[in-house]
Amino acid sequence: MNLCQWTGVTCGQRHQRVTRLDLGNQSIRGTLSPYVGNLSFLRYINIASNGFNGEIPHQIGRLISLERLILSNNSFSGAIPANLSSCSNLIELSADSNNLVGEIPADIGSLFKLERLSIFQNHITGQLPASIGNLSSLRVIDVRENRLWGRIDSLGQLKSLTLLSVAFNQFSGMIPPSIFNISSLEVISLSENRFTGSLPVDTGVNLPSLRELRTNANNFTGFIPVSLSNASSLEMIEFSKNQFSGGVSVDFSRLKNLYWLNLGINNLGTGAANELDFINLLTNCSKLERLYFNRNRFEGELPHSVANLSSTIKQIAMGRNRISGTIPPEIRNLASLNWLTIDTNQLTGTIPPEIGELTNLQQLDLDRNFLQGSIPSSLGNLTLLTYLKLGLNNLEGNIPSSLGNCTNLLGLNISHNKLIGTLPRQILRITTLSLYLELGNNLLNGSLPPEVGNLKNLMRLDLSGNKFSGEIPATLSACANLEYLNISGNAFSGSIPLLLDSLQSIKELDFSSNNLNGQIPEYLENLSFLEFLNLSYNHFEGEVPMKGVFNNKTRFSIAGNGKLCGGLDELRLPSCQSKGSLTILKVVIPVIVSCLILSVGFTLIYVWRRRSARKASNMLPIEQQFLVDSYAELSKATDNFSSANKIGEGGSGIVYKGFLGENGTEVAVKVINLKQKGASKSFVAECKALRNIRHRNLIKIITVCSGRDFKGADFKAIVYEFMQNGSLEEWLHHSNDQLEVCSLSVIQRLNIAIDVASAIEYLHHYCEPSIVHGDLKPSNVLLDQDLVSHVSDFGLAKFLSNHNPDTIVETRSISIGIKGTVGYVAPEYGMGREASMKGDVYSFGILLLELFTRKRPTDAMFNEGLTLHDFSREFFTRKSDTDC
């Protein structure tokens, strides 16, 4: 076939020479051949959105007829070739979204025909060459998201510009006033730099076509120019995160196309009574969707005209000002509103029940005002709410049980009010609550309902300063993600439940000022993340532990407990040594009884072992760390290891679903394939790895079996807690027909990644000795009914020396050679390197890429130099949303 007939190749009719290469988005890989420089008739090159890498060949500088060079969205590296200035006919240079470094060529100003310069999202450094000011034909200059610095004075000479974007760099100095005289400008983006000074008074006078003006996150000062009223084409004004001051006098009623106005995080406000009147003018902006003027110094009453804003408005943020007045009931008119924040102001009156008609609302923040009355039950209609913040007001009455209908809540704060009554159980059935539940400093009473155990993902629970009574419910132990728990200042009684040892993520515990009694549980000293513990002003007695959090006096408080003893010397508590004859009897009698019981016990054990010598299996010491079930029990639990109960199979064995014991506990039984080389050692390694560790994101062993089956053959099995949602492998690649395609959202995938990272961090840094997993991959990440991740399969686990965290401890139970899984195992393992934490981190990185791209590292598409890393780089560049 003639090359002129190739896809994307165009030739001239006269000489049949290649004039055009249009190969965008063709999944082409590799480097761009330097021989492209031999196509002397070439006028157009478009290879955007492919997988090209390497440097841009300098031979392109020979193409003197070249008019458009489009290299966007690839992985080109190196610098922009300096000899591109020889392409004197160049109209467009687009090399954005690559990995380019170095500086912009100094001679770029010789490209007098250049109309578009787009090199955003690279790693280009240095200053803008002064010669850029010579590009009189330039219409678009987009250099955002690089590492450029210095001033931009030369850009003021470009009188044909329609788009100027220098955002997300390190430019500084004042903006040349001449820029605001370029009447053709449609977009000015100066965001996220270090610019100073003020905007010219006549900013809007000479910009009739200006649609977007972005100056956010700089150091601009002075007033907002009134002349912006003349820029009638404005659609977006983004002035946040500066130091603008004074009032807002722009006549917004003339900006009919305005959809975005952000004045937040400045020093705006004069104290004048009518300084919020600009809201009245905004009611004429029928396309307005975003209005932010939070974190300023605005005062005066909130105009009720806020309820007359555009019916399309979606977000209003006016928190952290000094706004007074009331919330108008007519707020119900803003039917599209999904975000309303008026926190930290001086609002009075009540929360209008009409807010409950804003059914699209996802965030409502009325914190820190002077609101009174009750919480409207109509808020229960806001079923899309993710955040509800009503704290630090003067609200009274009961907590409406209708809030239990807000089943998408991530955070609820109604603390520091005057709320009374009991805590509705419906609130504790909102299983999505994961960030915070703040109920502190109210007048709530009654017991804490056991439904609190439903909040398995909750990180922060504050019930302090109320009148709660009764015992602490043991179901609180199910809240395995809790990091902060404060129940101080109540009337809780009884002892601290022993089951709370499951709160392995807890960082701060405050049980102070209650009526708790009994001994301080020893497990508190084993909570490895615990940073502060307050047990003061209760009725605890007995010995104070000395390990963990109790090893540092500044990290715990036990004041006001008169019957404690022992502990650190600095506490100056009495010794726990017993005195008197009564004490001697209390010690001697139990010892004698214990000795008799032990003697009888040893005799019975001796007789039993003599009788069962033929049946007994050679149990390894490590297996004795777990309860041991018989083959018969496991056979019964799995219906004789029925194939109908098989839920997984791998090189190490087969996994069956079963129901164990009288209670029918749902379990997963992994039967070890003893024909596999090293299987017994793998069994021991897994038992050893899991015997002393507990973490919410690690699989839990319930029991083990090491004996013989009905035919007399060796049999080994491990029984785990059952994970209802299978493995991450099944969710990503749909090997389980019951899983719906694309059922994992971006947030769920992110939570899974965080869970796995937490587990690996625990193994590496909070276990003694540290543990290397050795085989981290999606099939070894199991998901429970709430999609919480649990890392499993420790058959290749390795223990690391405490002296050198990268040195493997040589023990019999972990003498297996490094295996792992191809594609996930670190490359250095293939060269005979020992297992290390870095190897797990590498495997975790591969898992992350697979989690978000749904591509295995061993997929057939990865050949001829293309890897999962390369694919991911392109994938995340090209996609703004994660889909299937």
TrEMBL record:
Instruction: Supply the InterPro entries for this chain.
Output: Kinase-like_dom_sf (IPR011009), Leu-rich_rpt (IPR001611), Leu-rich_rpt_typical-subtyp (IPR003591), LRR_dom_sf (IPR032675), LRR_R13L4/SHOC2-like (IPR055414), Plant_receptor-like_S/T_kinase (IPR051809), Prot_kinase_dom (IPR000719), Protein_kinase_ATP_BS (IPR017441)
Q: Which domain of life is it from?
A: Eukaryota
Task: Tell me the organism's taxonomic lineage.
Answer: Eukaryota, Viridiplantae, Streptophyta, Embryophyta, Tracheophyta
UniProt-annotated location(s): Cell membrane; Membrane
GO CC annotation? plasma membrane
**Bilayer-spanning residue ranges:** 587-608
The entry marks the following residues as binding ATP, namely K670
The EC code for this enzyme is 2.7.11.1
What PROSITE patterns does this protein's entry cite? PROTEIN_KINASE_ATP (PS00107), PROTEIN_KINASE_DOM (PS50011), PROTEIN_KINASE_ST (PS00108)
Catalytic reaction equation(s): L-seryl-[protein] + ATP = O-phospho-L-seryl-[protein] + ADP + H(+); L-threonyl-[protein] + ATP = O-phospho-L-threonyl-[protein] + ADP + H(+)
UniProt feature coiled coil, ranges: none
Taking every annotated instance into account, which residue ranges of this chain make up the domain Protein kinase? 641-884
Q: Which organism is it from?
A: Citrus sinensis (Sweet orange)
Query: What keywords are annotated for this sequence in UniProt?
Result: ATP-binding, Cell membrane, Glycoprotein, Kinase, Leucine-rich repeat, Membrane, Nucleotide-binding, Phosphoprotein, Receptor, Repeat, Serine/threonine-protein kinase, Signal, Transferase, Transmembrane, Transmembrane helix
* Protein name per UniProt: non-specific serine/threonine protein kinase
**Which SUPFAM superfamilies does this one have?**
L domain-like (SSF52058), Protein kinase-like (PK-like) (SSF56112)
Transmembrane helix as a keyword? yes
Q: What is its main location?
A: membrane
Membrane topology value: Single-pass membrane protein; Single-pass type I membrane protein
Q: What class of enzyme is it?
A: transferase
